[in-house]
Each structure stands twice: as C-alpha cells, then as structure tokens.
Amino acid sequence: MNQREYLLQATKSLTFQTMRKHFLTFFILFLTAGTSYSQEIRCNDSTFISQQLKAIRQTDQEIRAKVIREMTYKDPVAMKKIALEMKVSDQRNQLFISSLLDKCGWPKGLSILENNTIFLVIDHADTAFMTRYFPLLKTQADLGIVAKNDLATLQDRMMLKRGQKQLFGTQTFKIGNTVTIWPIEDSEGLDTRRRGMGLLPMDDYISLLKKTYQSEVIWDRNLTAETAQEQMRKKN
Hints:
Layout: H1 2-12, H2 16-40, H3 46-71, H4 76-104, H5 112-123, H6 127-142, H7 148-161, E1 172-175, E2 178-181, H8 190-196, H9 202-213, E3 216-218, H10 225-235
Parallel strand pairs: 2-3
Antiparallel strand pairs: 1-2
C-alpha cells in the first residue's frame, strides 16, 4: 500500500549506473534461479514446500517491517537501499512461487499462513504477475482455501494499476504526509461488499491506517480515478 509509493519513488531516483549494474546481476541470477527452482520442486514433497513458504514469508514480512520503520525517518538514501533490497527479495520469491504454481498447481494441505504466503507474493508482484495468477487465487478463495479479504485486496490492487476505481476500499496512495483512499466504485454499498469479503467497516479501516502510518487519512468520495492518477504522476 503506502510502502509501495515510497519504494517506487526511491527506485526511480536510483542512478542509471547503479540500476544498470544491478540489473545485469539480477538478470543472470533470475535466469539461472528460475531453471533451478523448476528442477528442484517436488510437487509431492509437502515438507520442502512448507519450508520454502516459511522462509519466503519471513523475508517478505521482515523487509516490509523495515520499510514502515524507515518511513518515519524519511531518509532518501536509506529508502533507496531498501527499495533495491525489496526488489531483489520480491523477485526471488516470485520465481519460486511461479515455478511452484506452474509445475504443481496450488498445493493441497497447506496451512492458513502458507496459503496466505502465496497470496502475498502474488500481491507484491507487478500487474502481469497478478493477472496471470488471479484466476487461480480466485478459485482457491471460492473453495475457502484462501481468505476472501486477500482476494479483495488483490482485485483492488489490479484495478488501481489499471487506473480504475476499486471495489473494496483496500488501496491508498500517499502524497507528502497525507494518505488518500483510492477512488471507490459505488461507495454507498462499500461496507456491504467489505463485510462479504471479511473486511473491517471502512471507518474502522481508516482508523487503523491512521494508527499504522501515523498520517492523516483522507477519503474523498468525489475523487475520480483520473484525478488520483494525475496526483500520483505529479508526485513522482
């Protein structure tokens, strides 16, 4: 959510030389790692899969906790470093998850946290990755394997990326010290939709955002997706 806004800005401000140097390293790493993952994944080895998902969840959450801490200091150099760390971590996790899902489908018998970990990796990826695995995630949500609030979050994220109004009010963007709720389709029916997906009422969610990010949170019901996009472009 708001972490992404900070990281996007930090990544954009990295020097061309730094990005080129790291891109070459990442490209070689990902080519070899992708092949390695595909070869080593054993679809019937639940212990191996669980161990990998546990490690992925730990790295995913640790780096994001670090982002939230650094947001309070507003140190651009530190944020650049974290942006690069997160990019490497996320892409490494995506390589494993894409290899797992492509080779094995959605593994059976996973714990709640393990199913949620697969969602997190998809949710923290780019639009193409989200779109590719959204149907599979939706199937798991319909079966009760993945939480409906996770499905709602991913659907909103995809709509934001496409410049469309969101349905469940999970997405925000930040300009300066102000967090703004991304425009919502049919705001009158929002809490009914949120309740159906296991989400907090919108007022409670806004209170949670204020507490988490220590920032002002604005929900302008008249804000259009086009205006929100323009505000984000000007900020970047």
